[in-house]
Design brief:
Layout (H helix, E strand, L loop, with lengths): L13 H4 L12 E6 L3 H13 L4 E6 L2 H10 L4 E5 L7 H10 L6 E5 L5 H9 L3 E4 L3 H41 L3 E6 L2 E5 L1 H6 L22 H14 L6 E8 L5 E13 L2 E8 L6 H9 L13 H18 L3 E8 L2 H26 L7 E6 L2 E7 L3 H16 L2 E4 L2 E4 L2 E8 L6 H18 L6 E4 L6 H18 L3 E10 L6 E10 L5 E2 L1 H10 L3 H20 L5 E6 L2 H4 L4 H12 L6 E6 H6 L1 H13 L3 E7 L5 H7 L4 E4 L1 H8 L6 H12 L3 E4 L8 H7 L3 E2 L20
Parallel strand pairs: 1-2, 1-3, 3-4, 4-5, 16-17, 19-21, 21-22, 22-23, 23-24, 24-25, 25-26
Antiparallel strand pairs: 6-7, 6-10, 8-9, 9-10, 11-13, 11-16, 12-13, 14-15, 18-19, 18-26, 19-20
Helix pairs in contact: 3-4, 6-10, 14-15
């Protein structure tokens, strides 16, 4: 296909470029990956972008290995891929981008007409699908995706700042000398240690979720209840004030309190804040208390979980702000409770953990953080390292641990570990997400190895249920094709004009493992994805010719409507093949009317016209189904002329559901009759619509009210007389 240049005219002028730069920094260079088999097209895209005022630093991707290297070594803003590239299928590129947890939107370029390419591209994860040579459209989509990426980046930075502010706020609350509590629905939602101590409790957990009234003397309970009710009803209009009452201490003693009350938000919940200010703020004491937060695990001498989580959140913030990369190895000892805790006891288990901690220290490099993360788990956080390097190191840890002997007071153990690796990148939202991904990698590894460990796995996003179902359906289609697991059904089409010929529509069903029928609406898209729709169509044609030949041999004047896919419509070899098939079966070519959906005809007008003309040459009739829903259906009919027209079923259903009058359908049929088309109205579901359809002058009707599809052509057309 020649690449048109009309779209590029005017892109050098201000009028041609300004609209593409609105809201964007025109001088900012786009870091672009291009996936295309044609180097000429890669150069054309770069030139087009530069001419449009978008300076570009591009890299031509020629293999999956090269893509992996580029993604790990540099930061990229965008990827443009040719849907038909063979060097690296776009689906594989998207999977690799997700695997490495990169925020690189991918735009597909397709030369396929219609919306099928868009649907397929969006399903595999493309941000958008653009028609080949639609450069102006491409520029607008590039602008949108770059802005969207920047918005995502800003949101992640904001989320990170919010998390950090919340963490610091919580830390200050917990350690504050001011007695602070939050109340919701009359109960303590939170109270710090100072507040608990004011009421004589040793631990703040003792009063969380306790009703406020339980800590108020009997004589003041009514007053406090009334106050809380009125303060809550005022909502945001409530002004800060002071509540004075006699409180009930933990030892049942009474004490007077003056509490400052204000509206507040705690843990994203609207609530009431209680605060009792300390008489003296001792900054040195506060600082000393903050310093008491221990970073070290007592058993192993390594950093503890809290310290590692803080470091991990720091790496997440760094990745969001500076586009850096870090990795986390979650090292989980296999069958720890069975092999260690059950045999070694508490003290022996601690000794084993100490030994494992010392063993793992040898793998720690400068700048890394090794911590004990749980009863049977360690974590190693590594800044500025690629995923494949971390995987290699994780494999080394597993191999050396397998040969390591743990000796505790003469008892020896040999242990193994499973290591889950996750990546911190600019698209990571939180440290918790990184940990969950590493744990998921461990879970996936063990599932694949019958719950056995001793290995490594990089976290990869799960295939969605929809994608898994589609993959399974594609396999079912191939199996059905290989093992003849398709079935034909026949639904009668009844003449309202007393025609002598019998008509049926041929309907296809696929049989699953339980011999349940699956409709084409559910499996034909999967068939198209694996490229077997034309094979299925030809199977239907041959089976129909065979069945119809036997049926007509009994004296029936039967014709059938047979549906073809978009792929068969565009298959130039189909019409000649049909001529041979009819001749071999000694069946008249006018016995089968080949039917194509209006959408497919509209999207492939030239191919449709050529196909219908070829059918006419061998004296086969043609039909267009689902007619009447495009913007200008009669324009389509002018270009691709068919003998039959089957109206879209929604027109009939709307009349039967009383959601629309018959005028639209009547007018549509009137114009079709004026164009000398044989008309069919489907979806006749009750008797009430029959008189309306008869008055329209339609030739044929079809629907479950007349007869549902059956496995044989056994309808008694004589009773319609």
């Amino acid at each position: 296909m020649q690449h048109g240049r009309v779209q590029e005219q005017g892109l050098n002028s201000p009028a041609g470029t300004g609209k593409y730069n609105r809201g964007m920094n025109a001088n900012e260079t786009i870091r672009l990956l291009i996936l295309n088999d044609s180097r000429e097209e890669v150069e054309r895209l770069i030139s087009m972008l530069n001419n449009a005022g978008r300076p570009t630093r591009a890299q031509h991707v020629e293999s999956e290995e090269a893509l992996t290297k580029l993604l790990q070594e540099q930061t990229w803003d965008l990827m443009i891929a040719d849907a038909a590239t063979t060097e690296l299928p776009p689906a594989n590129a998207i999977r690799q981008i997700k695997r490495l947890n990169k925020d690189v939107p991918l735009i597909l370029i397709s030369d396929e007409e219609g919306n099928q390419a868009s649907v397929a591209g969006l399903k595999i994860g493309a941000s958008d699908v653009i028609q080949l040579d639609e450069d102006q459209h491409l520029l607008l989509v590039i602008q949108r995706e770059l802005e969207n990426r920047e918005h995502r980046q800003q949101r992640r930075r904001a989320d990170q700042r919010l998390k950090e502010a919340e963490r610091r706020s919580q830390q200050l609350l917990d350690s504050s000398r001011d007695a602070i509590a939050y109340v919701q629905d009359g109960m303590y939602l939170y109270a710090n240690q100072s507040y608990a101590e004011k009421f004589g409790y040793e631990d703040r957990d003792d009063i969380e979720c306790m009703p406020v009234i339980d800590m108020v003397s009997d004589e003041h309970q009514g007053q406090v209840k009334k106050f809380l009710k009125e303060f809550t009803l005022k909502g945001d209009d409530a002004e800060s004030c002071q509540l004075v009452f006699t409180g009930l201490m933990a030892n049942d003693a009474l004490s007077s309190f003056a509490i400052d009350v204000a509206n507040a938000i705690y843990d994203e919940e609207s609530c009431i804040q209680f605060m009792i200010s300390s008489q003296q703020v001792d900054n040195e004491q506060l600082q000393a208390e903050l310093q008491k937060i221990k970073d070290q695990d007592v058993v192993t001498g390594l950093f503890n979980r809290q310290y590692l989580v803080e470091k991990l959140e720091g790496e997440v913030a760094k990745a969001i702000n500076d586009s850096s990369t870090a990795t986390l190895q979650y090292i989980e000892i296999d069958q720890f409770s069975d092999h260690v805790q059950a045999h070694m006891g508490v003290s022996g288990t601690d000794s084993v953990l100490g030994d494992l901690g010392n063993f793992l220290k040898q793998f720690v490099q400068p700048g890394e953080t090794l911590a004990r993360f749980g009863d049977d788990a360690f974590a190693l956080l590594t800044p500025d390292q690629k995923a494949d390097q971390t995987l290699s190191r994780a494999e080394d840890i597993c191999q050396q641990l397998e040969s390591h002997i743990v000796d505790v007071e003469g008892k020896t153990l040999q242990l193994t570990a499973t290591v889950g690796v996750s990546i911190v990148t600019e698209s990571t939202s939180s440290g918790e997400e990184v940990i969950e991904q590493a744990l998921k990698a461990i879970e996936d590894f063990r599932k694949e190895h019958n719950n056995a460990g001793n290995g490594t796995r990089l976290y990869e996003p799960e295939v969605s249920e929809e994608q898994a179902a589609e993959t399974n359906l594609a396999k079912q289609v191939q199996t059905a094709l290989d093992n003849n697991r398709f079935q034909l059904l026949f639904q009668p089409i009844i003449s309202l004009r007393g025609a002598e010929e019998e008509h049926y529509e041929v309907l296809l069903r696929m049989l699953d493992d339980n011999d349940e029928q699956i409709s084409p609406s559910k499996f034909m898209n999967a068939a198209a994805e694996i490229g077997v729709t034309t094979k299925i169509d030809r199977w239907v044609i041959l089976e129909t010719i065979k069945t119809l030949s036997e049926h007509r041999a009994s004296g029936h004047k039967t014709r059938v409507l047979l549906n073809l896919s978009r792929q068969s419509l565009c298959d130039e070899t189909l019409a000649p093949w049909l001529g041979v098939a009819f001749k071999a079966a000694k069946l008249s070519t006018d016995a089968i009317i080949f039917q194509v959906d209006e959408v497919d005809v509209t999207n492939h007008l030239n191919a449709a016209k050529a196909f219908f003309d070829a059918l006419a040459e061998i004296k086969c009739a043609s039909s267009m189904s689902n007619f009447g829903c495009s913007l200008n259906p009669f324009k389509t009919l002018e270009h691709a002329n068919t003998d039959y027209v089957k109206i879209h079923g929604s027109f009939t259903l709307d009349i039967q559901n009383n959601s629309e009058g018959p005028e639209t359908l009547t007018n549509l049929i009137k114009h079709l009759l004026e164009a000398n088309k044989i008309t069919v109205v489907p979806f006749v579901e009750n008797a009430n619509v029959l008189s309306t359809l008869w008055q329209t002058g339609v030739h044929y009707i079809q629907g479950h009210y007349l007869q549902e599809p059956t496995a044989s052509m056994n309808y008694d057309f004589n009773m319609e007389g």
